[in-house]
Write a structure and sequence with these properties.
Elements lengths: L1 H13 L10 H14 L5 E6 L14 E5 L3 E3 L5 E3 L3 E7 L3 E9 L1 H7 L5 E5 L1 E3 L6 E3 L4 E7 L3 E10 L7 E4 L9 E5 L3 E8 L6 E7 L5 E9 L11 E9 L5 E13 L3 E11 L6 E4 L10 E5 L2 E9 L6 E5 L6 E9 L12 E9 L6 E13 L5 E9 L6 E4 L10 E5 L2 E9 L6 E5 L5 E6 L26 E5 L1 H4 L1 E4 L2 E4 L2 H10 L32 H6 L7 E5 L2 H5 L15 H15 L4 E5 L20 H14 L3 E3 L12 H6 L8 H15 L1
Parallel strand pairs: 1-2, 33-36, 36-37, 37-38
Antiparallel strand pairs: 2-5, 3-4, 5-6, 7-10, 8-9, 10-15, 11-14, 11-16, 12-13, 12-15, 17-18, 18-23, 19-22, 19-24, 20-21, 20-23, 25-26, 26-31, 27-30, 27-32, 28-29, 28-31, 34-35
């Protein structure tokens, strides 16, 4: 059994801890030692075998075995084959047999480890042009590191000017130009943290003996979320530079590297730039197409640069100039994290050239002057379309039930715009594809309307506690169809008392039904705060200012229709009836004069999954939060209570919860009205 002790010593020397949580060295070591102990008496350990074990075919006259971890055919041991990554016992008992262990070899375990271990190869360097190993006996060496989970590493040391790249990333374990992702070149002293591109399978540290170049790598941070965005897809385009309007211009001295940026919000650019009429860095809304139609913003630097730049919200690609006269720039992500699900951008998309979207059933129609871009819709409720449209017989935006087959039977509806456009359009609930036209000079961009052009903070303001008199004070409600109680029934829309009667029961307020001469529910379906020539319903403001019967508590909920009709907001001190602030100021002035002792609650619009139902009614262009904010500011200016409707809990996106709480994306179901009343009562009490 003395040879067994030798085998254990060999295992202990070759199988070591490597910090990999999947197959650790300690586990491998323990299992192999247990295997040795279970072999039983009579087998002699012969040592570590290799495919080229010397001598002739072995046929011992005693039972023995080898430990084999090197892949290949073991000709002198019965022709047994050990696979790559396999740990095997090659056992002799009148014939040679292999006992597979189902344990990864030390080389395989190291490859899967995030620890920076790897293969050292002397006499080679990584060429900067081909990105492949080049023979250079006595001058260069390469250390190959197979990457598992490293997100960020630190490189430190000293570099010299040479034709060798310093640090190179590949998407496969083979260091070929086809697998090349990106690289860094250092001259002089270096000490920097570097983000490892997503998808990197091989990291190469290429050093050049001449001049004493020497580098060290160490891990800084590991991946803990496979969806964590980072720079990964990139491409070098030779023979062009980027001019100041974002176009690529042919030049034998130019080169451009374009890099996909899926989720990064800011980038660090560092290196040396030459300035002049070329852009050092440019952002585009498309990875594939780089021209004036996709160009967003660019920067020109001169000399040494080390700067953090905000990434435009809808940038999909960043391009770096690599001008042959000496421009050398690198970028890394500074802040790189997934955006929240309620602010999702539209992701999957495709440009289709040679067609336009005909306004007859949304059919793609052949034309050399036309093109359209189609987007997969992941469930977005409304989109913002912005740019310049040409009108005519082409659709600016269209919705379809199928992404792969658009037009005809899959067409839902579309819009044609002319001239400058910047509006929010409702996305049909069953739309799986959104397409925008790109005819001739038509230049349109599309974005999830959740990315609001103004990020407005929303608040409630309640002067608690409230004394509602225990069923001695009468409540009155003003608003639109949501307050009126329009909900779904088997025969279409039918009227109920809605949330007001439920809320009064919870607060201990008097509620008089619609059969009363002065009912508590004074809401009118379709009404706005503001006047609008296209809306015939009486405004909320005019109904309140026509009220004279006794009332103690006022609940005023509106703004949804003002938002849907693009009503103007106006200044905070406005008194214009066609502006939201003006209508609200008139309401507050009337209540303060005629009901000075009343308790007044304004309720801002609840969430909805439908976009603007009539996007071309008015001339205003605001987000729903801006209407909420205006109501809050005017009401609190007059000293009244305000409840933020977005806090009530209605959904903002389509789905099962929407179907449960909102019948048509705007009006609550019976269960939705219960949610409304319960939440209001909880906020008020």
């Amino acid at each position: 059994m003395s040879e067994y002790s030798s085998l254990k010593a060999t295992i202990n020397a070759n199988i070591k801890a490597n910090n990999n949580h999947e197959i650790t060295g300690a586990i491998t070591n323990s299992v192999l030692n247990a295997m040795v102990n279970s072999l039983g008496a009579g087998y002699q350990y012969m040592g570590m075998a290799t495919p080229t074990i010397p001598g002739s075919a072995q046929t011992p006259d005693y039972k023995c075995f080898y430990l084999a971890i090197t892949p290949g055919t073991y000709t002198n041991l019965g022709g047994l084959v050990v696979a790559d990554g396999e740990v095997a016992l090659l056992k002799w008992d009148t014939t040679w047999t292999k006992v597979a262990t189902d344990i990864a070899s030390v080389q395989s375990v190291i490859k899967d480890s995030p620890i920076l271990a790897g293969e050292y190869v002397d006499g080679y360097y990584i060429d900067r042009s081909t990105h492949e190993p080049i023979s250079a006996a006595g001058f260069g060496y390469i250390r190959y590191v197979v990457n598992g989970k490293i997100r960020k590493l630190r490189i430190s040391g000293k570099g010299v000017d040479s034709s060798a790249d310093t640090l190179v990333f590949y998407k496969d374990v083979s260091p070929t130009n086809g697998n090349y992702i990106g690289s860094y070149k250092y001259t002089g002293n270096a000490d920097e943290e570097i983000n490892v591109p997503v998808g990197t399978q091989l990291i190469c540290l290429s050093a050049w003996y001449r001049g004493g170049e020497i580098f060290k790598l160490s891990e800084v941070e590991f991946w803990d979320d496979p969806d964590f965005g980072c720079l990964f897809k990139n491409e070098l385009i030779r023979g062009s530079y980027i001019n100041t309007n974002g176009n690529y211009v042919s030049s034998g001295s130019g080169a451009i590297r374009k890099i996909l940026i899926p989720e990064c919000s800011s980038l660090r650019i560092k290196g040396t730039a030459i300035g002049g009429y070329t852009l050092s860095i440019a952002f585009y809304s498309s990875y594939e197409t780089h021209d004036t139609t996709t160009f967003i913003k660019g920067y020109t630097f001169s000399g040494a640069v080390d700067q953090t730049i905000d990434v435009p919200k809808h940038a999909k690609c960043v391009a770096l100039g690599e001008w042959a006269k000496g421009e050398r720039l690198t970028i890394s992500d500074v802040v790189c994290s997934p955006r929240t699900t309620d602010l999702r951008n539209i992701l999957t998309n495709e440009l289709v050239a040679g067609y336009y979207l005909n306004n007859s059933y949304g059919l793609p129609t052949a034309s050399t002057k036309g093109s359209y871009r189609k987007f997969y819709n992941p469930g977005i409720a409304n989109v913002r379309i912005k740019g310049t449209a040409i009108g005519g017989s082409t659709l600016s935006i269209a919705f379809y039930t199928d992404y792969s087959n658009i037009g005809g039977a899959t067409y839902i509806r579309g819009f044609t715009f002319e001239g400058d456009v910047d509006t929010i359009v409702n996305v049909p609930e069953n739309a799986k594809c959104i397409a925008i036209g790109e005819w001739l000079t038509e230049s349109l961009t599309l974005m999830d309307a959740g990315y609001e052009k103004k990020q407005v903070k929303l608040y409630s303001c309640l002067d608690k506690p409230f004394n509602f008199g225990n069923n001695t004070k009468k409540a009155v409600f003003f608003g639109d169809s949501i307050t009126y109680g329009a909900t779904s029934g088997s025969g279409g829309l039918h009227n109920t008392e809605g949330y007001p009667i439920l809320l009064c029961g919870k607060l201990g307020l008097i509620y008089t039904p619609r059969t009363d001469a002065n009912p508590s529910n004074q809401a009118v379906s379709g009404s706005l705060f503001t006047t609008n020539p296209n809306v015939s319903e009486q405004t909320i403001a005019s109904r309140i200012m026509a009220t004279s019967f006794p009332a103690d508590v006022f609940f005023i909920a509106g703004g949804c229709n003002d938002y849907n009709c693009n009503a103007l907001i106006g200044d905070l001190d406005s008194v214009a009836a066609n502006e939201l602030c003006g209508a609200l100021n008139n309401i507050c002035s009337y209540l303060q004069t005629n009901y000075p002792n009343a308790e007044v609650f304004f309720i801002t619009p609840i969430n909805q999954t439908r976009g603007k139902t009539q996007p071309t009614y008015g001339s205003g262009d605001y987000t729903q939060n801006e209407y909420r904010d205006a109501i809050f500011k005017v009401a609190t200016k007059w000293g009244y209570n305000v409840i933020d409707g977005s806090q009530i809990g209605f959904p903002e996106e389509n789905g099962d919860y929407k179907d449960l709480m909102l019948y048509d994306g705007i009006h609550p179901t019976e269960l939705g009205y219960e949610l409304y009343a319960k939440t209001l009562a909880g906020l008020i009490l």
